[in-house]
């Protein structure tokens, strides 16, 4: 039952996503996990492209990612690629 409620919550959150929505974004690159916030720049059924406004992670200040970078991550609908470490959720 709890799993179903959590799934319903994620589906509802995914439905809230719109262009220019403020979001929390999580992504992986080269074995490292990153998190940040941003605004949705592009959106389709299975993916969101987010323009970063903050970045947290092992290389947040190394130049690979910076404020204004665009990151594409799967939406909850894409169950083959979506995970806690590769996701976008509304703030």
Major β-sheet profile: 5 strands, antiparallel
What characteristic shape results from the CA principal axes?
Answer: globular
Count the strands?
A: 5
Task: Give the overall pLDDT as a whole number.
Answer: 88
- Gyration radius over CA: 13 Å
**Spatial ordering of strands, largest sheet:** 4-3-2-1-5
Helix content: 10-25%
SSE order, one letter for each helix or strand: HEEEEE
| Low-pLDDT residue spans | none
Beta fraction: 35-45%
**Number of helices, where a helix is a run of at least 4 consecutive DSSP H or I residues:** 1
Distance between the termini: 25 Å
- Structural class assignment: alpha+beta
Notes on the protein architecture:
This protein has 1 helix and 5 strands, in the order αβββββ. The chain is of the alpha+beta class. Strand 1 and strand 2 (32-43) form a beta hairpin. It starts with a helix and ends with a strand.
């Amino acid at each position: 039952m709890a799993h179903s409620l959590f799934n319903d919550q994620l589906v509802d959150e995914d439905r809230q996503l719109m262009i220019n929505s403020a979001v929390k974004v999580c992504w992986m690159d080269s074995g490292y996990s990153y998190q940040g916030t941003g605004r949705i720049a592009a959106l389709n059924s299975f993916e969101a492209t987010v323009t970063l406004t903050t970045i947290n992670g092992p290389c947040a200040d190394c130049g690979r990612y910076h404020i204004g970078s665009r990151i594409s991550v799967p939406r909850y609908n894409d169950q083959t690629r979506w995970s806690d470490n590769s996701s976008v959720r509304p703030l």
